[in-house]
Amino acid sequence: MAKDIRYFCFMESERQRKIGALLQRDLADILQKAAKDSGISGLLISVTEVAVTVDLMIAKVYLSFFPEEKGEELFEGIQSNAPLIRHELANRTRNQMRRVPELLFFKDETAKKAEDIERSLKGEENPIEDRSLLDRRQKK
Q1: Could you give the domains of the chain?
Q2: How far is CA 106 from CA 16, 76, 140, in A?
C-alpha cells in the first residue's frame, strides 16, 4: 500500500476534484443508507474527504463518526464490505465514470485532535502556561 501513496500529489487537478466530490456525495448517501438499513440508530457518518490519484484508479476516503464509540465497529464493517460499496457506487455513477476507483477507507481524526488540543488549552494541562509539560521537547 505504501507504493500507492506516491501517486497522490499535492496539487489536485480540476478533474480529480470533481471526481472526488462526486464520490464523496454518493459514498455519503450509500453509507448513511447502509447504517439505517442495518438498524444502527443515533450514529452520524461523515465522508470528510475523498482524494483521488492522478490516474483515477485509487480513492482515499476519510470517514468520521459521531459518537466515536460506535464508529469503530462500523468502520471495520465498512472496510470489510469495500467491494460491495464499490459495486453500489459503480451502479450510481455508471453514466458519469467508466471505472470506479479502488476505495481505501481511513478514519479522519482531525476533529478529535482539535478537541483534544482545545481541551488541553482550557484545562490544567496547558503547555503555554505550564512550561514543565514541555520538558520532553527541550534541548538537553
Answers
A1: 2-108 (3.30.300.20), 109-140 (no CATH)
A2: 19, 10, 38
Q: At 48, list the grid cell.
A: 470528510
Candidates 35, 3, 29; CA nearest to 104 is 3
Which DSSP string corresponds to 93-134?
STTT-SSPPEEEEEE--HHHHHHHHHHHHHSS--TTT-GGGG
Residue 8 pLDDT more than 80?
no
Strands 58-66 and 102-107: parallel
Question: Which tens digit of pLDDT belongs to each residue from 109-137?
Answer: 887 788 777 877 777 666 666 666 666 55
More confident residue, 7 or 110: 110
Residue with cell 488541553: 120
- The answer on pLDDT for 48 being more than 60 is yes
Distance of alpha carbon 32 from alpha carbon 39, whole angstroms: 11
